[in-house]
């Protein structure tokens, strides 16, 4: 039977409130929870405001990981949220998933990680045998399976970033057995346990887009009985990864989109050279940023087709037959293996997997076909 690690990220910078409930840990954000930080990898979704100096770290400062060996019957789902937060116990969905896994005979451990080092300590359990070339490589036959309890896509991305950091070889140490269209091996599959069922409704997070189970018992079944579903991964030259997509642009306090300029290229196609104003640019692996208000940006984003879809929204002034001027929105699209965005002036706010940032220099994304995987039935 498998060893299963239920991993939760436990920092306010991983999700508002740390516990993943939004606001403060037990609801109701405090001033400390809502104050901007200099480093963040959260799941916030505001396109109008960003914090300068963000470095997409994904993790909080150091701290001790909270680890519990979970046995059958321990998941007391009747406890109040306040008590859970006070004792730093896992949230109810995590306990319910642990109970379901224990009932099937799995050996379950719950871990709350508050730093990159603590995430890395969990991921080390997925390492394969030593290789002659000295590279750290995932074990394709591992008896340890990982469940990531996520309050946002940003939290899931934070774990994937550490997987990439762990297993991607330096260009000078690229092994001969690595596929020619990839810079890293097949990453170990992860199971996704959404902590907020509401995100499967009006807000379609990545788990909802992929049709992954949200019920803890169903997630447990996918871990033990499912098969890996391989998905594309976007890497970028800023050292991070993108699972769903990125949306560049911003709006003023009244909700009106602000104009900005950038050169946007997809492989050999230039969508805009930077001379004309833009309202938005979507970089899509999946469909989280396929639409903006009532405008369709991406038409067919597919996280398993080996391509990235990119769209720019350009306001164009046209004249009617009566000579009157009006503005229409022109959407230009392209698909390919890589995309680059070079801002022409100032800072360009963006959301990347729900994480806010500001683009001040050229940023390039490239596709890694089938690089990561989720447990799915």
What does this structure look like?
This protein has a six-stranded antiparallel sheet. The protein has a six-stranded antiparallel sheet with strand order 15-14-11-8-17-18, with no helix packed on it. It contains seven helices and 19 strands. Helix 4 packs across helix 5. By secondary structure, it is of the alpha+beta class. About 20% of the residues have low confidence. Helices cover 16% and strands 32% of the residues. The chain starts with a strand and ends with a strand.
How do the strands and helices of this protein lay out in sequence?
Blueprint: E1 3-9, H1 31-34, E2 66-70, H2 81-87, H3 92-103, E3 107-113, H4 116-123, E4 144-150, H5 153-167, E5 190-194, H6 206-210, H7 216-225, E6 227-236, E7 241-242, E8 245-248, E9 262-266, E10 269-273, E11 280-284, E12 291-292, E13 295-296, E14 308-319, E15 325-336, E16 338-343, E17 348-352, E18 355-359, E19 363-376
Parallel strand pairs: 1-3, 1-4, 4-5
Antiparallel strand pairs: 2-3, 6-7, 6-19, 8-11, 8-17, 9-10, 9-16, 11-14, 12-13, 14-15, 16-19, 17-18
């Amino acid at each position: 039977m498998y060893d299963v690690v239920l991993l939760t990220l436990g920092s306010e910078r991983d999700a508002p409130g740390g516990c993943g409930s939004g606001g403060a840990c037990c609801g109701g954000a405090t001033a400390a929870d809502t104050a901007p930080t200099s480093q963040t990898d959260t799941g916030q979704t505001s396109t109008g405001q960003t914090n300068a100096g963000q470095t997409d770290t994904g993790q909080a400062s150091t701290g001790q990981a909270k680890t519990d060996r979970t046995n059958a019957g321990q998941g007391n789902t009747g406890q109040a949220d306040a008590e859970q937060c006070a004792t730093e116990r896992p949230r109810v969905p995590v306990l319910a998933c642990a109970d379901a896994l224990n009932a099937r005979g799995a050996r379950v451990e719950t871990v709350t990680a508050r730093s990159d080092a603590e995430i890395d300590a969990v991921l080390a359990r997925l390492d394969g045998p030593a290789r002659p070339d000295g590279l750290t490589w995932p074990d394709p036959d591992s008896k340890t399976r990982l469940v990531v309890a996520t309050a946002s896509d940003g939290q899931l991305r934070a774990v994937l970033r550490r997987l990439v950091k762990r297993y991607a070889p330096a260009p000078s140490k690229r092994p001969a057995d690595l596929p020619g269209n990839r810079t890293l091996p097949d990453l170990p599959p992860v199971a996704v346990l959404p902590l907020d069922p509401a995100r499967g409704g009006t807000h379609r997070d990545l788990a909802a887009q992929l049709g992954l189970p949200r019920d803890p018992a169903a997630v447990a079944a996918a871990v033990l009985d499912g098969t890996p579903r391989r998905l594309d991964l976007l890497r970028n030259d800023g050292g991070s990864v993108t699972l769903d997509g990125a949306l560049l642009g911003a709006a003023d306090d009244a909700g009106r989109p602000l104009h900005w300029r950038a050169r946007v290229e997809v492989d050999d196609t230039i969508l805009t050279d930077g001379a004309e104003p833009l309202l938005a640019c979507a970089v899509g692996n999946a469909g989280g940023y396929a639409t903006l208000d009532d405008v369709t940006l991406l038409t067919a984003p597919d996280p398993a087709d080996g391509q990235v879809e990119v769209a720019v929204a350009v306001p164009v002034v046209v004249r009617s037959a009566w000579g009157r001027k009006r503005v229409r929105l022109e959407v230009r699209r392209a698909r390919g293996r890589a995309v680059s965005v070079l801002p022409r002036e100032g800072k360009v706010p963006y959301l990347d997997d729900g994480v806010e940032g500001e683009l001040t220099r050229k940023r390039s994304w490239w596709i890694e076909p089938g690089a990561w995987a989720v447990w799915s039935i």
